[in-house]
């Protein structure tokens, strides 16, 4: 039975509302009421309440409860979907499923979850992490698509819901080390006594490899004579294999050949000789072409966290600023390569970006220096135009040909990735 009450608006008007008991929500098992307000007269409120009560009594907005929970259907879907996923991707996706989706929707009956249930859950997910909220909504939507196809649900409550757009975090998104900062970093590593670290970070800094790709490198992947690295694998997270699992790159773009500059080749040759000597002393078997270029204990490849840890230690020990992550170390290669004059498409292929959008996003943030130089170049160009016009006018002659703006690189000066690169 509906209860009808008057109330005062902020403007001082008298309006009417009704509250009505809807019954037990079959999705949650909890009692539910609903309230409608804004009616000008008690009669209007009563008529609306009577209509809603009739709909409830006739079961027009209640369906037969499903016996399957969202989690049960979700796991059925997941058991099929994960067959086509890499293990590292499975680990990443399960985070959103287990910590976001299932706590909010998992125990609800899939046939009775309403749009407002998903909206409420989504709002909570966004507050915690917009990135994981995106994954959580994508999974929820995929489960309902599966459920509809399997006739386990009649309505998709995710239909029309927008995925959250993660906001960029601010100034730290733009962080990278320029040439001078990179020089300072390498000045903190003694090449004579710590050639291993020097070779690790020199390779990362001058090839743009992901640190998982560097860890997976074997000497057979590097052609020192042709000055090229063949990227065919990477280290991925794994629950089964301690320290990670060597797998093929996630995308086709990840399989690539990256040229090496002359100085990096020399450093790698020096490291290869020193590594061979150390292996003899330690009694380790040299695996030849299958030998990992950089190894940890027992001649095995590094764990995924090893190189980020080494980078952080060097930064902390030498109080380097700004503090950057291993991810930003790779961004430094991309940014400096673009500043040096390389085209966006060239950089995209060198670093294994599947889409140019990622490279463009980095390019859009690198360039206070470039913008300032462009402004100065433009000003000089305009000034030379004015001077030429003034000279032409004073002599009464025709206007002289406009002075061309200075170019930042001549064709001969453009740095080539296969030759010695001078932007660090």
How is this structure best described in words?
This protein is mainly α and 424 residues long. Helix content is 47%, strand content 10%. It has 14 helices and eight strands. The chain has helices at residues 42-57, 70-81, 87-105, 115-128, 130-149, 179-187, 195-207, 211-216, 262-282, 306-318, 326-339, 344-351, 356-363, 368-395, and strands spanning 3-8, 14-24, 31-39, 222-223, 228-231, 234-236, 245-247, 256-259. It has a three-stranded antiparallel β-sheet with strand order 1-2-3, with helices on one face. A hairpin with a 6-residue loop joins strand 2 and strand 3 (31-39). Helix 2 packs across helix 5, helix 3 crosses helix 4 (115-128) and helix 7 (195-207) crosses helix 11 (326-339). The chain is elongated, with a radius of gyration of 32 Å.
Short structural summary:
The chain is mainly α.
Please give the structural blueprint.
Layout: E1 3-8, E2 14-24, E3 31-39, H1 42-57, H2 70-81, H3 87-105, H4 115-128, H5 130-149, H6 179-187, H7 195-207, H8 211-216, E4 222-223, E5 228-231, E6 234-236, E7 245-247, E8 256-259, H9 262-282, H10 306-318, H11 326-339, H12 344-351, H13 356-363, H14 368-395
Antiparallel strand pairs: 1-2, 2-3, 4-5, 5-8, 6-7
């Amino acid at each position: 039975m509906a209860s009808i009450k008057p109330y005062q608006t902020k403007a001082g008007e008298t309006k009417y509302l009704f509250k009505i008991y809807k019954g037990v929500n079959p999705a949650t098992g909890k009692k539910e009421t609903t309230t409608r307000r804004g009616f000008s007269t008690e009669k209007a409120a009563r008529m609306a309440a009577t209509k809603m009560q009739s709909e409830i009594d006739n079961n027009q907005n209640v369906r037969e409860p499903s016996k399957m929970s969202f989690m049960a259907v979700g796991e059925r879907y997941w058991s099929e979907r994960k067959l086509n996923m890499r293990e590292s991707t499975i680990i990443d996706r399960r985070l959103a499923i287990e910590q976001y989706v299932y706590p909010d929707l998992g125990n609800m009956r899939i046939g009775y979850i309403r749009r407002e249930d998903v909206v409420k859950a989504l709002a909570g997910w966004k507050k915690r992490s917009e990135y994981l909220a995106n994954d959580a909504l994508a999974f929820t939507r995929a489960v309902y698509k599966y459920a509809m196809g399997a006739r386990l649900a009649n309505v998709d409550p995710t239909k029309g819901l927008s995925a959250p757009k993660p906001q960029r975090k601010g100034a730290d998104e733009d962080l990278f080390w320029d040439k001078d900062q990179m020089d300072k970093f390498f000045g903190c590593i003694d090449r004579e006594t710590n050639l291993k670290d020097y070779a690790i970070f020199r390779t990362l800094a001058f090839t743009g490899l992901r640190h998982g790709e560097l860890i997976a490198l074997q000497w057979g992947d590097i052609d020192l004579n042709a000055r090229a690295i063949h990227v065919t694998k990477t280290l991925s997270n794994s629950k089964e294999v301690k320290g990670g699992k060597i797998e093929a790159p996630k995308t086709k773009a990840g399989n690539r050949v990256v040229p090496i500059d002359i100085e990096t080749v020399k450093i790698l040759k020096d490291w290869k000789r020193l590594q061979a000597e150390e292996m003899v002393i330690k009694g380790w078997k040299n695996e030849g072409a299958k030998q990992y270029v950089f190894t940890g204990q027992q001649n095995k490849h590094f764990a995924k966290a090893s190189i980020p840890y080494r980078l952080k230690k060097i930064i902390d020990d030498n109080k380097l600023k700004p503090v950057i992550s291993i991810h930003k170390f790779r961004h430094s290669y991309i940014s400096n390569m673009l500043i040096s004059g390389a085209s966006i498409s060239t950089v995209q292929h060198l670093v294994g970006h599947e889409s140019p959008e990622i490279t463009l996003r980095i390019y859009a943030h690198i360039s206070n220096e470039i913008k300032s130089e462009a402004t100065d170049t433009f000003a000089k160009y305009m000034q030379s135009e004015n001077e030429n016009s003034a000279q032409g006018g004073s002599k009464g002659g025709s206007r002289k040909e406009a002075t061309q703006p200075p170019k930042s690189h001549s064709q001969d000066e453009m740095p080539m990735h296969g030759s010695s690169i001078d932007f660090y």
